[in-house]
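Milestone M4 deliverable, item 7.
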Amino acid sequence: MRAAHQLLFRAHVYIVGAPALGTPEQMANLAEQPAYFRVRHKNKPVKPIPPIQLQTYAIDYTVMAHQVSSGASQNGSGLEIAVAAFDGDGRMLNGVVENAPVILSTANGPANQNNFFRAGQHIDVPMSATTIRLAVRDLISDRIGAMEVKLPLAGEASANAIAPTANPSPAKPN
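Output delivered:
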């Protein structure tokens, strides 16, 4: 996917907790996604998909205020944030789109030059995902910024690996 650069933003993506089997609510959310969608029959209820291992990710977005339309900055709800997880074949495994409850923050520096909007989002990602795509859209100007993050995150693979035993058995000569 090509990154969209009409709206520049920074994102901090990090894991929340350890991978775990999906809850019935999480699996019901996944059932609505293209990779898990099942055909519904009129006379038969759809069987829930069996739980799979999921990793929850949190994303903290930061957008410089001078890039956002003035109407968005006045009412505080003019940004849309989206995150989607994809497997190696490019199939979307899960996705979340939200109107961002933005918070205007001010850093030290000249007025209006260092103001920025912050927003946060969570997504439950199947362990088979290879990428997460992030996007921010100014709803008033329709300008978009997007980026892709490869999975697993740096350090994540080693954190989820099984630790070796404390005292491994020494090799015995033949």
